């Protein structure tokens, strides 16, 4: 599912290719880094330690899934021509991604607690990231060329770094 999530973000970014998409993608990368840091700090084993080499707390999949869902739900509350069907899609997405999280437990890759903590962290970070954009960064982005430059270059740096990470680690693992 890491490939599915990565492909979804790539498609979203290519479809939208605007400041909002850059902000969402940057948040997704930071959320992934947060997950890795929390795994190292909490260092809780998976239900079956041989399933994966990294710790299980929090579930990175649940954290990423709930980051996406929360941002999508919050963004769907903003009226625009592109979000008319967003509430329906958000409900469908919540259900589908909830099922994806449940699969992590049923396949014994995570405990329920690991998935719940991942969901809570992903939801909380997403709400914070959305709030920062909507309350502070967006207005500054519109009004200042320097803020646009920092946001765009920062987003590109984070996203390119993530792509390099994917190539170096995910392709080797698979």
Per-chain topology:
Layout: H1 2-16, H2 19-42, H3 60-76, H4 86-106, H5 112-143, H6 145-173
Helix pairs in contact: 1-2, 2-3, 2-5, 2-6, 3-4, 3-5, 5-6
Organism: Linum tenue
Transmembrane segments: 21-42, 112-133, 145-171
GO molecular function: dolichyldiphosphatase activity
Largest sheet: none
Radius of gyration: 17 Å
Shape: globular
Give the overall average pLDDT.
79
Specify the helix fraction band.
over 70%
The counted number of beta strands is 0
- H/I helix tally: 6
Transmembrane segments: 21-42, 112-133, 145-171
GO molecular function: dolichyldiphosphatase activity
Keywords: Hydrolase, Membrane, Transmembrane, Transmembrane helix
Protein name: Phosphatidic acid phosphatase type 2/haloperoxidase domain-containing protein
Describe the model.
The chain is an all-alpha fold. The chain contains 6 helices and no strands. α1 packs antiparallel against α2 and α3 runs antiparallel to α4. The longest helix has 32 residues. It is globular and about 50 Å long. The model has no long low-confidence stretch (mean pLDDT 79).
Kindly list the characteristics that best describe this protein.
mainly alpha; PAP2/HPO_sf; globular; dolichyldiphosphatase activity; membrane
In short:
It contains six helices and no strands. The protein has 174 residues and is mostly helical.
């Amino acid at each position: 599912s890491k490939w599915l999530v990565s492909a979804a973000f790539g498609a979203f970014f290519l479809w939208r290719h605007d400041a909002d998409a850059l902000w969402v993608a940057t948040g997704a990368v930071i959320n992934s880094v947060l997950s890795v840091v929390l795994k190292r700090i909490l260092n809780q084993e998976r239900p079956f330690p041989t399933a994966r080499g990294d710790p299980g707390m929090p579930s990175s999949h649940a954290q990423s899934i709930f980051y996406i869902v929360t941002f999508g739900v919050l963004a769907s509350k903003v009226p625009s021509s592109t979000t008319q069907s967003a509430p329906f899609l958000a409900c469908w997405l919540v259900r589908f991604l909830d099922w994806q999280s449940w699969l992590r437990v049923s396949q014994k890759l995570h405990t329920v607690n690991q998935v719940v903590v991942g969901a809570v962290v992903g939801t909380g970070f997403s709400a914070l990231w959305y709030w920062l954009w909507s309350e502070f960064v967006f207005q500054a982005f519109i009004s200042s060329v320097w803020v646009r430059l920092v946001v765009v270059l920062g987003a590109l740096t984070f996203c390119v770094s993530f792509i390099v990470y994917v190539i170096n680690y995910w392709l080797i693992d698979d």
